[in-house]
């Protein structure tokens, strides 16, 4: 079987064998198969999809294209969480310490952010001195000491995904459920945790724009994870509105710290408690209700904040900011975005807000771009809240040269205000066990 026949089979909807898929992935990584042939196959997948068996074979071939992390040096059960990317998503900084404070290890390897969704590594690196490039031995040592650490992904983890993702990005083949599933699950499986919680974001600013697609992706990822021998669960969560009140690296570290201090018990806290409870359930800590209680206690007793502080310190970070946020770098420009009418906020588009934050300097346009850790947006009003004309909706914050008035206008143009109070959806829209 050659690559021409493989493309032809997928084009005609004929199932590929696991051997054919492995041959294709190995051949592509070894540069024996050219980009144009793989692009043609990816496009055939976008039109004809893949079966569950094909998706599993693709995921495993991708996982095995590089190193598979051995976490057996960590004592006890390990749990990982993956979010499919969101605006203002700082949940990893909160739930890692919460779950670790309940006695379950959370070893996390993460990437830098690209485009309008932020990366957890960037948030951590906005803390003065905090190192995320650490040796594997140190990473295991950190987890065994505090139960929680987030470090940068090692160089040779799933090279097939790096190559395939770059190709998908320029051939309009990103938005295929089996391709997204294999991309995410190959990385999660290579990272070696015993249990995996998948947070599939749905809405504006997320890959999945509607609940049906988000549920299909969630179900497929859980099936692949279980078939690969992991304990696996997924939740579909709302990304039509940004997560929390802060978007941008330093601002999100402050917001996460406030949640860990128990100062903010809003929607972000609620989501973090749900995600932590599911992670604890996967690790065998009890029923959903028991695990929810454990997670809440970890915040209320200050144990989760302690884990966070020790984890930042062991990675070289200066933890004095926890008691004095002014010790973090602050921006030079603050700009108020005010409402042009009165009524209830019925739309606050996550993707537009994410892109505005990117334009303020908080994210990377290309992999090589530098980042302004101080930049971002503070949402002064939430979705569903009542505002008066002229009242402040958001504060734009930056130290980067940018056209702030234009950014503000684009935000105002997309915020919808109406007479009727909108329905607020629950944070977790669906659970796939
Ligand atoms: N995130 C990934 O890692 N891969 C995809 O294909 C989509 C989102």
Structure in words:
The chain is α/β, with parallel strands linked by helices and 433 residues long. The chain has 16 helices and 13 strands. It has helices at 3-11, 18-29, 35-48, 52-63, 91-101, 120-125, 136-146, 159-170, 177-190, 211-227, 249-260, 267-282, 288-300, 303-314, 350-359, 404-414; strands spanning 79-83, 106-110, 148-152, 195-202, 231-238, 246-247, 333-338, 343-347, 376-379, 386-387, 392-398, 416-418, 428-432. Strands 1-4-5-13 form a four-stranded mixed sheet, sandwiched between helices. Strands 6-9-11-7 form a four-stranded antiparallel sheet, with helices on both faces. The chain has a three-stranded antiparallel sheet with strand order 10-8-12. The longest helix is centred in the middle third of the chain and has 17 residues, at 211-227. It is globular, with a radius of gyration of 22 Å. The model has no long low-confidence stretch (mean pLDDT 94). Bound molecules: uracil. The site of uracil (URA) has 7 residues, from helix 9.
């Amino acid at each position: 079987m050659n690559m021409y026949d493989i493309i032809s089979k997928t084009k005609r909807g004929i199932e590929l064998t696991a051997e054919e898929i492995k041959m294709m992935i190995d051949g592509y990584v070894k540069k024996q198969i050219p980009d144009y042939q793989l692009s043609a196959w990816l496009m055939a997948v976008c039109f004809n999809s893949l079966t569950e068996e094909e998706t599993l074979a693709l995921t495993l071939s991708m996982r095995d294209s590089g190193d598979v992390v051995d976490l057996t040096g960590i004592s006890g059960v390990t749990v990982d969480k993956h979010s499919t990317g969101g605006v203002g998503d700082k949940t990893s900084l909160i739930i890692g310490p919460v779950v670790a404070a309940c006695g379950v290890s959370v070893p996390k390897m993460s990437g830098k952010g690209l485009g309008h969704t932020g990366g957890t590594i960037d948030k951590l690196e906005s803390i003065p001195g905090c190192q995320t490039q650490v040796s594997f031995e140190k990473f295991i040592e950190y987890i065994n000491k505090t139960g929680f650490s987030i470090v940068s992904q090692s160089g040779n983890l799933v090279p097939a995904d790096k190559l395939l993702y770059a190709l998908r990005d320029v051939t309009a083949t990103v938005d295929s459920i089996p391709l997204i599933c294999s991309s995410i699950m190959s990385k999660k499986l290579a990272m070696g945790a015993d249990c995996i919680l998948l947070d599939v974001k749905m809405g504006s600013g997320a890959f999945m724009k509607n609940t049906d697609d988000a549920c299909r992706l969630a179900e497929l990822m859980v099936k692949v994870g279980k078939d690969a021998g992991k304990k696996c669960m997924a939740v579909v969560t709302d990304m039509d509105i940004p997560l929390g009140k802060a978007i941008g690296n330093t601002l999100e570290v402050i917001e996460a710290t406030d949640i860990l201090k128990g100062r903010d018990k809003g929607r972000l806290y609620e989501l973090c408690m749900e995600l932590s409870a599911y992670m604890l359930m996967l690790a065998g800590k009890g029923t959903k209700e028991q695990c929810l209680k454990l997670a809440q206690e970890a915040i209320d007793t200050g144990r989760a904040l302690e884990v966070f502080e020790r984890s930042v310190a062991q990675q070289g970070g200066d933890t004095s900011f926890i008691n004095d946020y002014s010790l973090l770098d602050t921006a030079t420009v603050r700009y108020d975005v005010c409402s042009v009418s009165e009524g209830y906020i019925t739309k606050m588009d996550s993707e537009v807000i994410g892109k505005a934050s990117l334009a303020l300097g908080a994210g990377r346009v290309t992999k090589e771009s530098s980042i302004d850790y101080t930049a971002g947006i503070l949402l002064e009003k939430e979705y569903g809240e009542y505002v008066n004309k002229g009242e402040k909706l958001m504060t734009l914050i930056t130290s980067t040269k940018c056209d702030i008035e234009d950014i503000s206008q684009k935000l105002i143009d997309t915020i919808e205000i109406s007479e009727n109070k909108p329905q607020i959806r629950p944070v977790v829209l669906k659970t796939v066990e």
